[in-house]
């Protein structure tokens, strides 16, 4: 409540005129009471505060934003943004941050948040614009980092490159305190678009004027590695290490360059230096082992891992990598021993998956199934996941009958296992047996009416099949799922789709926009484009399709939509 009290006092002290001074009577030019901190305003702020304390972050956000706009108070919009970040509702967060930025256009935090939200949507051009707005305020906008992330995401670098070039050509651009960051970003994008000479010229100029910048040599080394030029990478990393002694990034780049040159001993010297400077850092040792393993230097990777697997508290990832090494050396039984020692955690299931696949590829299917059966007994908490894993492997081997038998047998023993019921239901759906799917999902819902996943899956299926006499039932199921998980983009997509099926595209649109903002995938893109087309927003629909064609390598629903509505093609 102290935070609320501060905010309330701040609102009460807001000047109502831009020409007011500290000695003015605050009531002399006060607006009518309907715009002041009257009972309604106080009640709204108190309701927002209490809603946030109860975890109703959407209500809290909307309350703070309403009062922020009423009082033109940026601190209230900031508080609303904080609440929105806990809501898992991307559109709500975007609304809150936009309000904050409108009230405090020179504030750094909302600009960074707006850029981050654009990145989540995959809208790299907008993300760059927000970063450039930061740069124009004299802030370090991390443009080079943005360029690297864009390339990793597979986005088209050409529009970003051209925008950065235009930014660099502004009068006085070179006087910016972080001008080098924009130059580095542009060079990265030029190199990615085949303009290596332009990129080299920019970097050469930076080397003459700003040789003291570690980021310059970091970029040169990274670009050289990507261009398969390890000698140039080694030289740049060495220069960077001279500028920034002990910098682990340059030591790592040197190790990578030496590995590419086949100089394993030299690479190990650099990694040993890294480890000496980070004694006890297990994650670093594991990451370095992965680097050697990726390049096929199994002995070097093993030397890094052995101290970990023999320690008092060995990390599971070490056993996992040791299993991969043994598997690469065709030591199947040794690999199996290592994989079995991977404790529950992020590597647990993939270790069992690799072990079982390894046995199957070794023509030991029975051993693989026995291994998984024993693992289910050893790890009862992961029982359902291990059954699902075996079902997946049997399917990959073309043994669908055995997969069905396993699933049915385990469900006869644990008839209310929601994970296995859902798995069987989805397998039935894939085969077109909707009745069987509905039986299993119905059993889940009957036993657990709070299973949002099952509610949504059944509701969406009925809506997608467009079963006219069951669309209301589909709507009710999906709305119940949304009440349970209001921030789930998949459920928002289902809501939008069922409203569209019910003939209400206007109501469908905001849900699909919110879903696509939170989880941009090809299925939601297809739904959004179709609804925009139905609303005769043809240009917007084509833009969504164009983005989807660029973003997704596999896009069956987009392709199917284009077959039905060829005019949607950009």
Give a structural overview.
This protein is mainly alpha-helical. It has 32 helices and no strands. It has helices at 2-12, 39-54, 57-71, 74-85, 90-103, 108-121, 124-136, 143-152, 158-168, 179-192, 196-209, 214-226, 230-243, 248-260, 264-277, 282-294, 298-309, 316-328, 332-340, 348-361, 365-378, 383-396, 400-413, 418-430, 434-447, 452-464, 471-484, 489-501, 505-518, 522-534, 538-551, 556-564. Helix 4 packs antiparallel against helix 5 (90-103), helix 8 packs parallel to helix 10 (179-192) and helix 14 (248-260) runs antiparallel to helix 15 (264-277). The protein is globular and about 75 Å long. TPR repeats lie at residues 489-522. This is Tetratricopeptide repeat protein. It comes from Billgrantia aerodenitrificans.
Q: Layout of SSEs?
A:
Elements: H1 2-12, H2 39-54, H3 57-71, H4 74-85, H5 90-103, H6 108-121, H7 124-136, H8 143-152, H9 158-168, H10 179-192, H11 196-209, H12 214-226, H13 230-243, H14 248-260, H15 264-277, H16 282-294, H17 298-309, H18 316-328, H19 332-340, H20 348-361, H21 365-378, H22 383-396, H23 400-413, H24 418-430, H25 434-447, H26 452-464, H27 471-484, H28 489-501, H29 505-518, H30 522-534, H31 538-551, H32 556-564
């Amino acid at each position: 409540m102290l935070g609320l009290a501060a905010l309330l006092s701040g609102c009460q002290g807001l000047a109502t005129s831009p020409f007011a001074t500290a000695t003015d009577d605050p009531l002399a030019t006060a607006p009518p009471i309907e715009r002041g901190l009257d009972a309604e305003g106080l009640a709204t702020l108190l309701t927002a505060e209490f809603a946030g304390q109860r975890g109703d972050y959407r209500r809290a956000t909307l309350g703070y934003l309403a009062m922020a706009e009423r009082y033109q108070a940026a601190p209230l919009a900031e508080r609303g943004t904080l609440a929105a970040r806990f809501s898992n509702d991307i559109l709500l967060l975007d609304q809150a941050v936009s309000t904050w930025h409108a009230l405090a256009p020179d504030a750094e935090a909302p600009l960074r948040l707006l850029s981050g939200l654009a990145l989540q949507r995959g809208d790299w051009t907008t993300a760059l614009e927000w970063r450039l707005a930061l740069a124009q305020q004299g802030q370090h906008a991390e443009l080079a980092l943005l360029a690297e992330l864009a390339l990793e995401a597979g986005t088209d670098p050409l529009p970003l490159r051209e925008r950065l070039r235009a930014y660099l050509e502004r009068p006085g651009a070179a006087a910016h305190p972080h001008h080098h960051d924009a130059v580095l970003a542009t060079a990265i994008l030029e190199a990615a678009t085949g303009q290596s000479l332009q990129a080299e010229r920019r970097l050469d100029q930076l080397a003459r004027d700003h040789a003291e910048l570690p980021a310059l040599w970091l970029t040169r080394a990274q670009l050289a590695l990507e261009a398969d030029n390890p000698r140039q990478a080694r030289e740049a990393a060495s220069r960077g290490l001279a500028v920034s002694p002990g910098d682990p990034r340059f030591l790592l780049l040197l190790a990578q360059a030496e590995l590419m040159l086949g100089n394993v001993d030299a690479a190990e010297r650099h990694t040993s230096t890294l480890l000496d400077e980070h004694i006890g850092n297990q994650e670093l040792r594991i990451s370095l082992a992965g680097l050697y393993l990726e390049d096929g230097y199994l002995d070097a990777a093993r030397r890094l891992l052995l101290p970990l697997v023999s320690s008092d508290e060995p990390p599971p990832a070490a056993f996992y990598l040791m299993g991969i090494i043994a598997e690469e050396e065709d030591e199947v039984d040794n690999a199996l021993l290592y994989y079995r020692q991977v404790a529950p955690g992020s590597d647990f299931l993939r270790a069992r998956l690799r072990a079982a696949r390894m046995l199957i590829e070794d023509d030991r299917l029975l051993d693989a199934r026995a291994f998984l059966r024993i693992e289910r007994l050893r790890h009862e908490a992961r029982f359902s996941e291990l059954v699902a894993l075996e079902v997946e492997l049997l399917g990959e081997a073309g043994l669908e009958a055995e997969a069905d038998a396993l699933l049915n047998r385990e469900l006869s023993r644990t008839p209310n296992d929601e994970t296995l019921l859902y798995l069987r239901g989805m397998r039935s759906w894939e085969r077109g047996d909707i009745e069987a799917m509905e039986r299993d999902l119905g059993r889940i819902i009957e036993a657990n009416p709070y299973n949002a996943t099952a509610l949504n899956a059944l509701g969406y299926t009925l809506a997608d099949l467009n079963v006219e006499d069951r669309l209301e039932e589909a709507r009710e199921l999906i709305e119940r799922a949304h009440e349970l998980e209001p921030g789930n983009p998949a459920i928002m997509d289902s809501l939008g789709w069922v409203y569209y099926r019910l003939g209400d595209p206007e109501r469908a649109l905001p849900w699909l926009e919110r879903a696509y903002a939170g989880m941009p995938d090809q299925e939601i893109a297809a739904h959004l484009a179709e609804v925009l087309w139905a609303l005769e927003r043809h240009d917007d629909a084509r833009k969504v399709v164009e983005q989807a064609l660029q973003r997704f390598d596999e896009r069956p629903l987009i392709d199917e939509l284009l077959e039905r509505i060829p005019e949607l093609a950009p």
